[in-house]
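Quick one: structure for this chain?
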Amino acid sequence: MSGNPEPPVLNIRGLRAGYGQLHVLEDIALEVRRGEIVALVGSNGAGKTTLLRAVSRLIEATGTLEMEGQNLLALRPEQVFGLGLVQVPEGRQLFHRMSVEENLRIGANRRRDHAGVAESFERVFTLFPILRERRRQLAGNLSGGEQQMCALARALMAAPKLLLVDEMSLGLAPVIVDQLLVILAEIRDQGVTVLLVEQDVFAAFSVADRAYLMETGRIVRAGNVADLRDDPEVQRAYLGVEGA
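Got it. Here's what it folds into:
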């Protein structure tokens, strides 16, 4: 063999972060490699969104935080975004008084490759045909599922290398969640690496390659989804399997 292995798209080691004097995350170790969907699962309050905020550089952190070998800790949020790290926030956070198309254009507002932006529009309208139909409609008038599709599409318009998806299933009917999970797998297959943060362990495990389980600011389990699904303790604590 020759050369060094490709660095992870996201490499986290010994990460600590929080708010002021309150430390929420302790000694977090996590990595996401190119072409994966990695799930980060845990209950509300486990620290999952805090971790995403640290990765996006919205809060201060210490330890190792790298994207494709580049240190993120010294960067501002807009610089991290410029590297191709794009977050789909919890609650969608669309501009409700703007049209679907205007929301999507905001996702691409830092891009100067006009031909590429046009290709991205076609790509997201192929992934989400309903958005093509709704492109002139106000985002605030969309259903919850359509708003989540719009939020995902807006993030894709930024041409991400790493997509951080925060609580995609929250408040949505199971049939809509299933549709979104299929689309997320398509996004991965098209070359976008994904870190999926979810309370819904069943949803996360159905699409992820690997997973990390978080409790009270720490990673307590990690591995391939198939192995975690067969782990009796994971079955009992996270999947509700009695007698596991």
